[in-house]
Amino acid sequence: MLILECPYCGVMADETDLHGGGEAHLKRFGPGSSDDEFETYLFHRKNPKGVHFERWRHVSGCGKWFHAARNTMTLEVYGTYPAQTYEPPKELVAKIKKKHPEWGGYE
Amino acid sequence: MRRYSAFAIAREAARYHTGWERAWKSPKPKKKYDVVIVGAGGHGLATAYYLGKNFGITNVAIIEKGWLGGGNTGRNTTIIRSNYLQDPSAAIYEKARSLYETMSQDLNYNVMFSPRGVMMLAQTEHEVRGYERTAHANALQGVKTEFISPQRVKELVPIMNINGPRYPVLGALWQERAGTARHDAVAWGYARACSDMGMDIIQKCEVTGVRSENGVVKGVDTTLGQIDCDKLAMVVAGNAGHLADMAGFRLPMESVALQALVSEPIKPCIDVVVMANTVHGYMSQSDKGELVIGGGTDGFNNYTQRGSFHHVEETVRALVETFPIISRLKMLRQWGGIVDVTGDRSPIIGKTPLGNCFINCGWGTGGFKSIPGSGWAMAETVAKGEPGSLAAEFGLDRFTEGRFIDESVAAGVAH
Fold this sequence. Notes:
The complex is a heterodimer. Chain A has helices at 35-43, 90-99, and strands at residues 3-5, 12-14, 19-23, 51-57, 65-71, 77-82. Chain A has a four-stranded antiparallel sheet with strand order 3-4-5-6, covered by helices on one side. Chain A has a two-stranded antiparallel sheet with strand order 1-2. Chain A has a single domain (3-99), classed as Folate-binding superfamily (Folate-binding fold, 2-Layer Sandwich), CATH 3.30.2270.10. By secondary structure, chain A is an alpha+beta fold. Chain B is of the alpha/beta class. Chain B folds into two domains: 25-109 and 182-252 and 344-411, 3-Layer(bba) Sandwich (FAD/NAD(P)-binding domain), CATH 3.50.50.60; 118-177 and 255-342, D-Amino Acid Oxidase, Chain A, domain 2. In chain B, a hairpin with a 2-residue loop joins strand 9 and strand 10. Chain B is globular. Chain B starts with 5 loop residues before the first helix and ends with a helix. The A-B interface holds A 1-2, 14-16, 19-20, 22, 35-36, 39-40, 42-45, 47-49, 52, 54, 70, 72-75 and B 239, 241-242, 250-255, 299-304, 308-310, 340, 342-343, 399-401.
């Protein structure tokens, strides 16, 4: 079972206490954007084999949204961090990069 | 190719079964083909078969990174139905279901299609309304389904508890001509027929790159070397997004794990397929006597072909409530497969940004039932360069234009 540490309440939460929210750090497009931008924003998601940054909600706990870095090939969890950010923390990216030098990095 | 028949069995019995041929050849790849199909699962093989049968294109290679039918074709719960809400879905799934009816004769290979009937239980008032609506839509689409009463459900499935305290059965959407088939046999039957037409099925050959010049695909790089082609058809599940990355375009889909399990074999106790979408579980009994049980998808991106225990628990809990007699059964095996899910839960068939490259993917949790229809529509798309009537609505451009085929409500969990 997937276990993520909630960065707000510090609980090691089981998958059953959490709700996945898909790709993290989406760039949002508003009125006046082109069809292509809307399509990308609404439907295109990163679907990597490997390191993935995602949104999760601690539904059966504090109820707050947070972010997690996870590997889709091994189910390894690299870390979690609060949602009030536009990109993953530098330390976390560096930690993943150290572990997987072949990883292209966060883009 | 020697035909399979009762006579063939007698002939081989008389000579100690020394005369059976290999069902398909395993050739080395040639330098160039008219069409290269990536993915030798049901959909890829069906595409190849109908390219040969309907369009006479037989200089075809079907390349597969694993073994034939070893992906989701060999991992599903073998359900075949076509009771979809939206017209384009009903059309392609009904085409598939009707092709399944004659597939054994067509391929000269017993795929054990069993039109035993599929019922989808309505356990809330919303589901009753939803399924009544689907039954009316199906009547207009020419797909025979009906909404049946709880009493009729009980007659069809005596082991079901229709008066459960939590979710009593309020009725069901019943498709009498839906059913199941032997999933591996579908892949094997198509493979044998394709090989007989002179097509090359190349297993253990992984695509590592797609070569293109000026928006036109020249060929693919594989672990067995470079293979050139006039047309490329990507017919993979789970890894479609990864393959599209190699070709330089993106797909609006995410890959998640879907899992299933089977119980120990028991005597025949249920002769239809029952799906209970509210409580997340569906069940049928295989010819071996095992209860074949399917659950929901994981809620996160995943490429590991593994299930997760809490889904098994949730599914089995729901089914024990619906079928109390199975409460003492042991579960034998459990497995997972990777499905690629699009935003509207409908597949993608059609053209890609690369002129001579076509794609068929995104079947999500509904791939097996659609194999012949998908192959039929994809073959037409590849042969003519334009999607035909079955595939027309399923193009990639529907996401730009907002022309969705929204089956997400109708498909929800069980599919």
